[in-house]
Amino acid sequence: MRLTFLGTGTSCGVPTIGCQCYTCTSKDPHDKRLRCSALVETETTRILIDCGPDFRQQIMPQPFRKIDGILITHAHYDHMGGMDDIRPYCQFGEINVYADPIAKAGLLQMLPYCFAEHRYPGVPAIQLHEIHKHEPLRIGDLEVMPIEVMHHDLPILGYRIGKLAYITDMKTIDEGELDYLQDVETLVVNALRQKPHHSHQTLDEAVTFAKRVGARQTWLIHSSHDIGRHKEVNAFLPSDIQMAYDGQVIEIK
Question: How far apart are CA 217 and CA 226, in angstroms?
Fold first, then answer.
């Protein structure tokens, strides 16, 4: 199984428009962070996690082939604002999109023309599936287990796929959810910045959570310009907990 980080940035991306801070003025491509999204692929199955407003730019360098499913973590624009751009992939057939009830309602509101009784030609062909925490689903040859984390007071979904767990926008997690993360070897989790935030983990909180999970390798995502430059942050992090970067590909056994 292969994971490609299509985007590792927060809702404003990095560089942030109009900002001249130390991170935003970096020339290092590792400090260019599009909105969060990832591809999980095997030889026969391709899953997209979140489809934000940068989707078109993110997917252009990737091979053009069928997307078997799109997993939505939650109903915020930076995680599903690119859904209209999946239209070219509909030539392979309807695209299955999986979302919890809150995110499903958000999609219906954002893309009403996709779900109208009489759809005009060319709109994305979406088959929208309502999913719930702890109810596994199968997409191709991959089994997906949705888990629940809290984005401040909003319950959202993380996903466990085999030995991989992908979590974004988390502030807290119920103790019972940790049972679903046992034996995870590759953890992807959000680390917004170093100063406290009401609805996202800080870098220190992400490191503490990673140590609790005990994965062989943890990759940090959903990072703002306030976290600092990629290479400098990674230099003081443990080698098994590192910031991911856009375009990075990792193999998961």
Answer: 23
